[in-house]
Amino acid sequence: MKRFFNWLKGLFNRTMDRIEDPDIMLDQAKRDMQAALVANKEKAVQAITQKNRLQLMLDEAKKRSATLENQATMALKQGDRETATVFMREKMNNDSTVATLQGSYDQAVATVEQVKVAIKRQEEEVRKKTAEALAMKAQWKQAQIQNSIAKALDGLTFENQFEGFGAVQDRIREAQSEAQARQEVMGQSLSGRVMTLEDKSRDMEAESELDRLEEKLGLRAPATPAVAQTAETQTVSVGGPPDAPKLDAAQEAQARSEAERQLEELEKRLKGN
What we know:
- It contains seven helices and no strands.
- The protein has helices at about 1-20, 20-75, 80-155, 165-190, 190-215, 225-230, 245-270.
- The radius of gyration is 57 Å and the shape is elongated.
């Protein structure tokens, strides 16, 4: 029996949770507002219908008074004052009815106008509440998503999972430092200096070939014997004494300055022509 009551209690709580769901509550509130608006519009239609009926009755009563007045006028013109008096009495009674109908009609018009204003305000309120309901639904969905994300992330651990990356980075830095050290040692060794001298020699040969190509194309004047002799002496002896690279560098600078001077003279002659 206790288990049965517990089951009923759980079922009741589950049902209440579903009933109190914000989506369901907002939808029900929206339906209630729409139903109330429809009911009020129906009442407004009935009020306007009664107003229109009073207007028809008032128009008919006014027409009857006008008709009775015309009949009294015709009787007077024919000299029948007694008949004219009867028509006027009937017109007076009808005028009382017209006055009563006019009062009822005026009151009905005022009531209908108030009802129209109330319906308009209610429609605006329904639109406003509908927009608020949509916003509240979006907020409820957002809260549910955030709760789901929080539950999904609950209990996750990220400790000791990225230590391998740090060890790899240390090994890479160590290898880079060792390679840089070997390059520095290589630059200071004899073989490194020989490679440097060979690179300079290749650069000088390339510049000499470029000078000859410029002379062939007529882009510069032929080199003077002194300059040519200077260019010929610019050779690098790989196995020479340690002071040889300094002398070759000075000669290279002298040859370049001479070539630049001749190039400037050629440009001046070209501008003069």
